[in-house]
Amino acid sequence: MTPQNARAHEPQTVSILGLGAMGTALAAALLDRGHAVTAWNRSPGRGEGLVERGAHRAGTVAEALDRSEVIVTCLLRYASIRATLDPVAEQLRGRTVIDLTTTTPDEARELGAWAAEHGIDYLNGAILATPPMIGGPGAQLFVSGASEVHERTRPVLETWAEIVYDGADPGAASLVDLAMLAAMYQMFAGLFHGAAMAASAGMPAADFAARAVPFVAAMVPAFARDAEIVDGGDYTVPGQQSLHFSDLSDIIRASDEAGANSSTIRAVQALIAEQVGLGFGDEGTARIFESLRRPEPVRDGAAEAVA
């Protein structure tokens, strides 16, 4: 075993700040791998199961910091991180903070700058998993920040998930995470909209899902080809569905006739209409990426096409 591999198997001392469902799962996985865990939660009464398994429950944040060199924050919002860490900034000097709280990219960068100002090593992480998945197959953890901090903390990080390092920019992991969630939530919104339309004819949502899921699954691989077109910047590549052909007016009218809220599909139609109004109607539907990346004022004609 090489010295690097040997260090990867050495137990670490880790303090988890925040014992919600995810924080508890993170602490449990560390205990499973033999790491020394200290747990703290703002509200008392959580973590009893972790204590029974060998974790130390800290009564204060300061006590949690005293017991570990690696501090993991898994809190509710960015404001919660600052409220928890600002009072102990000097005590954190020389320690490592791994923040796994959901933050925007700029919040992650701001926290990274704050950490650097106080002599704290910092890594931002974004978990792509549910609490039961932690430590098991399928869990992913996007991390960004200084590469040396990433390498040094891998024994802890790999306890939880497969690691994807997104580079030195502290905000990168959050950006990719939230971008993927944006795609996921809009996909589900589309499916719920379809279910609402079908419900007007008495179709249960479960029946709609049974028919929609295989169709959507068959369509998803096409995104890889569209992504290549976007990267190439040529929306005239043969084989694409044109923006003119992609007009969604019939879907909007059908939704309205069904009494369903058509706001989600109208948003997509607005993107299509904008590019058509700019003169690109014969180009591929993937061109709506340009409206999403560089929003431009919708022309009057494009706005009328959405109505």
Automatic annotation (TrEMBL):
Family: Belongs to the HIBADH-related family.
Keywords from the named record: Oxidoreductase
The protein, known as: 3-hydroxyisobutyrate dehydrogenase
Domain 6-phosphogluconate dehydrogenase NADP-binding: 14-164
Taxonomic placement: Bacteria, Bacillati, Actinomycetota, Actinomycetes, Mycobacteriales
Domain of life: Bacteria
Domain NADPH-dependent reductive aminase-like C-terminal, residue spans: 169-294
PANTHER family named among the record's database cross-references: CYTOKINE-LIKE NUCLEAR FACTOR N-PAC (PTHR43580:SF2), OXIDOREDUCTASE GLYR1-RELATED (PTHR43580)
